[in-house]
Amino acid sequence: MAVDALVTYMNDHLAGSRSALDLLEALIESTSDAKTREFLDAVRAEIAADRDVLEQLIRRVGSGPSVVREVGGWIAEKIARLKLVIDDPSNGPLRHFEALELLALGIQGKSALWRALSIVAQAVPELTGVNFGNLIRRAEDQYARVEDQRVAAARVALMSGRDVPATPRAAAKG
Known about the structure:
Elements: H1 2-30, H2 34-61, H3 67-87, H4 93-120, H5 132-158, H6 168-173
Helix pairs in contact: 1-2, 1-3, 1-4, 3-4, 4-5
């Protein structure tokens, strides 16, 4: 039963990674700024690599990725994207900001996944030999980079038509 729970948990995160990759594809396609596209493409490549690691671990522990959960992740991403379109039909700053926020939350979930797997690896031989510390650090680094972009996007999306402070500290002092 514990292995079933582990495989379910890992497959849920695999489905989440599919959602993240699809969301990133949409972000890349809708972004004209070359630097932003380059940033998003780099994050996408890292998330794809993390997904490959997770898929290998699922194959070691269980029977393989769950098609049902993959489809569920795909559907969830489509619903999330629909919500973004409804919130900002013009594909403007709000949609970009909210997409980055979804991505940032997903990366935090991935970091939590790696921490949880690092704990159970002591009791699950199929998980040994994986450098979870490196995976956790990479997720934390991804989160920090995406969070920087998210905060910058928040200034544009949420402060439209208002005086925009240069830094969060400037806003706190005011």
